[in-house]
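Fold this complex.
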Amino acid sequence: MIAQLSSLKPAWQRRDTGLTVRMIFSFAILTVLYLIFLSVLSYLGVGYIPIILIASAMILAQWYFSDKIVLWSAKAKIVSREEEKDLHEMIERIVARSNLPKPRIAIVNIAMPNAFATGRGQKSSVVAVTRGLINILDEGELEGVIAHELTHIKNRDALVLTLASLFSTVAWYLMQFGFYGGLYGGGYGYSGRDRNGGGAMLIILLVAMLTWIVSFLIIRAISRYREFAADRGSAQMTGKPVKLANALLKISGTMRRVPNKDLREVEGLNAFFIVPALSGSTIGNLFSTHPPVEKRVQKLMEMEASMS
Amino acid sequence: MNFFNRFRKSPLLSKSASDTIFALSSAYITLETKLGLKSTGRAAISLKAVDGMYFLTMKEDVRNFLNASRTDFDLAYRILTDTYGYLWIIIEGKNMEDILAGVTAIGDIIYERGFADNLLVTVFQFSSDTLDAKPSTQYLIFNYKRNNFYPFVPLGQKNRDTEQEMKILSAVDRELCFEKDMSNWYPLWDVPL
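Structure:
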């Protein structure tokens, strides 16, 4: 019965099951990788405990101080209700509608339009927007962007990504450790005393490198899916996907690509026969934390289409 | 494909343009139901005017066709040349089927007289009749060189409503061949419709 009811809902309101499946799959791969990595290490009998301890401590510290670190590094300033009444009221409206705790609000005094969310949990979270963002977006667009950031908080994306990067951080430290170990081993003749140790070092180095590369790519993939999820969440919160799509186009500068020059003026230039440069961005896509704007806009417009 | 057809001068170009344009016969209903956009009954074919006998003959042929087909299509028409040196054949009909038939038939005449390369666009005019907003004139532009449509919503002097354009795109994206690259959405200011 419940399933039937949900299938009657318009497409944009339904849960994105594909996304959930991909997320679980990604985490499964990460966990398996981590386990393989650990078993290889324990098989080789290396003293990996100190490294993991240090790495975990660093990750914990990073986690605990994350909001302060992020705000400090972005030069974001927490603003009170008196200082930014409109912004506070807008965010209060959104959180009231979506039954979320109100985050602290920060402003970064730069012209570049951008926004981010940070914080350990829903209660200690901060939403920061730049002055440039407030200036170039209209109210509906700003609402879309803030709802996107609020969805990140709601989905606990900071926690998810910190946990996911645990593996890659550990692998990264081990890689360095293995590299220097190998260096010293070769340079100072330890390998002569302990041939097996040198070989083991090489294996650790390779495994750590592989773990790091694969987990790096997977974290990027998770991050991109979280972005899509946040776009979706924002559209559900505000009910206006086209506003967020517009905001994304404005922020990315794509909006400026919509020409203002009359077709009859440019027609003679044969502008239409210029073969577009090969975008070849597949590799770039693998490494980026955000999906391409065109793709995000396309998904938002699909939601818009299914709503009207 | 279009690009190579231009060299081969095969009839495919005209054919595919007609096919793409005819998709509007169902898409315009979607525009009306989803966005409240109604066809004003006006459309215009624009092509670069050139001097010479052949172009004048072609123009006469179009005129003769429109006069002769008045019983079938019931289309009113005007022909004028704008300041850019483009000839505009503006037609006005009672329903979309007549307009589309007229537009594609005129396109065929232009094509057969050897002026396919001069064809620029066909513009379809719509107006919104939503109660909350003031009525505005909006356009779907069919580009012959790209063989696809894009939206154009002018806002006063040399401004455009990109948001509304994107809504149009998302409403009929599936039914019409659309220009995905927004940097090709060239406006046509002061369309003489």
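DSSP finds seven helices and six strands in chain B.
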